[in-house]
Design brief:
This protein is α/β, with parallel strands linked by helices. The protein is 38% helix and 14% strand. It has a single domain, classed as Rossmann fold (3-Layer(aba) Sandwich), CATH 3.40.50.
Length: 291
């Protein structure tokens, strides 16, 4: 499945993406492969160790911890993210999403890591361009916050490649859901006043895992970015239905919105990586009992 005797470091292993990704990577191992996680607590480390992962205790924001975690690593999957929320500050987003990510890549380049997979977001594009966004489009997310810090990380990783030749493979993922992730329920308040027909590009955790696996294994793609999403995002109305709720009547007449915001063309991922969503829509995931 993977190259012979590889050690794969996963950051952000306790997050919603990482906690579902690590078991998949463990299940895809060939004999001799190792999956390593960098986690901050012994309790988290025990859970991953019991599943068969190597554990390094530390904080991604600490340079010495990053160095220890990289020792002997062949592949890095940087799934760490400080996301929106009252308890997460702008400073923490910048420290985790930009500063730690870029320094981790710089250190990975020096230690001979062969593949660095940066998990980013489709929100780095900012406002739409009148069509689905493509990987070569300008990144226009406003400075600060989650989208802005991820955009700034991508820009600095691009400069790192220009300086050293070390190129990250970047996965710009859509709104992630599935397998018990509370993301949909948590997002509903943000969409309460949105037009009922507004579409939300999404991607199931199983397909995030598939994309990461392909990004690790596919040769000749260093420095490339890939949009990762489903085939058709649900409307806001359908999103509420999937959560067992309905939006208020009259929401369809809400203020105008950009119908292309967040909608990304995934042709490159299909062409280069062979990526085809296992769950092409959230409704298909619901029918399969995979929400």
């Amino acid at each position: 499945m993977m190259a012979e005797h590889e050690t794969i470091l996963v950051t952000g292993a306790t997050g919603q993406v990482g906690r579902r990704l690590v078991p998949r990577l463990l299940s895809w191992r060939e004999p001799g492969d190792r999956v390593r996680v960098l986690v901050r607590t012994e309790a988290a480390g025990e859970r991953f160790a019991a599943a068969g992962a190597q554990v390094v205790l530390g904080d991604l924001r600490d340079a010495e911890d990053r160095e220890r975690a990289l020792d002997g690593v062949d592949v890095v999957v940087n799934a760490a993210a400080a996301f929106r929320g009252a308890e997460v500050t702008e400073q923490e987003m910048a420290e985790v999403n930009r500063d730690a990510a870029v320094d981790l890549a710089r250190r990975a380049a020096k230690t001979g890591v062969r593949r660095f997979v940066q998990v980013s977001t489709n929100l780095v594009y900012g406002p739409g361009v009148g069509r689905p966004v493509r990987e070569d489009d300008e990144l226009r997310a406003a400075p600060g916050g989650y989208p802005g810090s991820k955009r700034e990380a991508e820009e600095q990783l691009a400069r790192l490649r220009a300086e050293t030749g070390f190129g990250a493979v970047t996965l710009r993922i859509a709104f992630v859901y599935g397998e018990g992730d509370p993301h949909i329920e948590q997002a509903l308040p943000r969409f309460a006043a949105a037009p009922a027909h507004q579409r939300l590009p999404m991607v199931h955790h199983a397909d995030v895992g598939q994309a990461v696996r392909r990004a690790i294994r596919t040769p000749g793609i260093d420095g490339r970015a890939y949009n990762i999403g489903d085939d058709a995002g649900p409307s806001v109305y359908e999103l509420f239905e999937l959560a067992g709720r309905r939006p208020e009547t009259g929401v369809a007449a809400a203020a105008e919105h950009d119908p292309w915001f967040g909608v990304a063309d995934t042709t490159r991922a299909h062409r280069d990586l062979g990526f085809t969503p296992r769950y092409p829509t959230a409704r298909a995931a619901w029918r399969a009992g995979a929400l």
